[in-house]
Design brief:
alpha+beta, 5-stranded mixed β-sheet, 14 strands, about 25% helix, globular, Hydroxyquinol 1,2-dioxygenase, dioxygenase
């Protein structure tokens, strides 16, 4: 199309997609063009503001490395990650809800036996975790693969702990014949998302908190069931109402029960107060 103007440019761009080989790609690109153009019109974007936005996205890309994905973090704080997750994981009300997986999952995690200590020797309030995996009829699901990982008492994951060479606070477990799995570790703490990049700039401009509430990540895979990617948050955490990545759901806020020093579960004696967390994970049938 020749001689486009502010009213005709949108349809001119959309017309160029008529020859797209993949219909789904054409559908996505058309919607992207329509919404992007509508955004520019709605806010009356100036050339200076457009250049600022391009600079922001360019610097975001430069921050991305094999160990840091600033674009995913940007997607997180804009709520896009949780929206995509919510659209793709609509389950029966009894099934455990999904949440964001976060950037700290690792494929090279060790497999541990039932009730093993996965703390890696790091110090903190002892945490005893007892999980149960069932189907939607509350029947146990045996031999489910259960990934768990969490931060330490200072809010650091093992990849960020100075001097730590081995994995810690993460494990691959298997549910037993009655659907149970368990581990011992240390209680995680709240922590800030990275604030030294473009996402940090955005959060400061919007006067939003960087602090994520404490949580334990859990991913459960079992044949015949939908994969669950979720996390559990302590009900007494100060940052539940302002999670910057919008991962908190009411059903995932649970009691991290505190107990006095003494004998903990599995005959493990503690010389300090400890936390006991019990939770049942309900899997939805695979729709495939």
């Amino acid at each position: 199309m020749r001689d486009p103007n502010s009213e005709t440019i949108t349809n001119a761009v959309i017309a160029t997609l008529d020859g797209a080989k993949d219909p789904r790609t054409a559908e996505i690109l058309e919607a992207l063009v329509r919404h992007a153009h509508a955004f520019v019109r709605e806010v009356g974007l100036t050339e200076e503001e457009w250049a600022t936005g391009i600079d922001f996205l360019t610097r975001t890309g430069h921050l991305c490395t094999p160990t840091r994905q600033e674009f995913i973090l940007l997607s997180d704080v804009l709520g896009v990650t949780m929206l995509v997750d919510a659209l793709n994981h609509q389950r029966e009300s009894v099934a455990t809800e999904n949440s964001v997986i976060g950037p700290y999952f690792r494929e090279d995690r060790p497999e541990h036996s039932h009730a093993a200590d996965i703390s890696g020797g790091l110090t903190g309030t002892p945490l005893f975790f007892e999980g149960l995996v069932t189907d939607h009829k509350r029947e146990p699901v045996a031999d489910a693969a259960v990934d768990v990982w969490h931060s330490d008492a200072d809010g650091h994951y093992d990849v960020d702990v100075p001097g730590l060479q081995e994995t810690a606070m993460r494990a691959l477990l298997r549910s037993d014949g009655e659907g149970g799995f368990a581990f011992r570790s240390i209680r995680p703490a709240s922590y800030p998302i990275p604030g030294d990049g473009t996402v940090g700039e955005l959060m400061r401009v919007a006067d939003r908190s960087l602090m994520r509430p404490a949580h334990v990540h859990v991913v459960i895979d079992a044949p015949g069931f939908q994969r669950v990617t979720t996390m559990l948050f302590p009900s007494d955490d100060l940052y539940l109402e302002q999670d910057p990545v919008f991962g908190v759901k009411d059903s995932l806020v649970v009691d991290f029960a505190s107990h006095e020093a003494g004998t903990g579960p599995y005959s493990d004696r503690t010389d300090q107060p400890y936390t006991l967390l019990r939770h049942t994970f309900v899997l939805a049938p695979d729709q495939g």
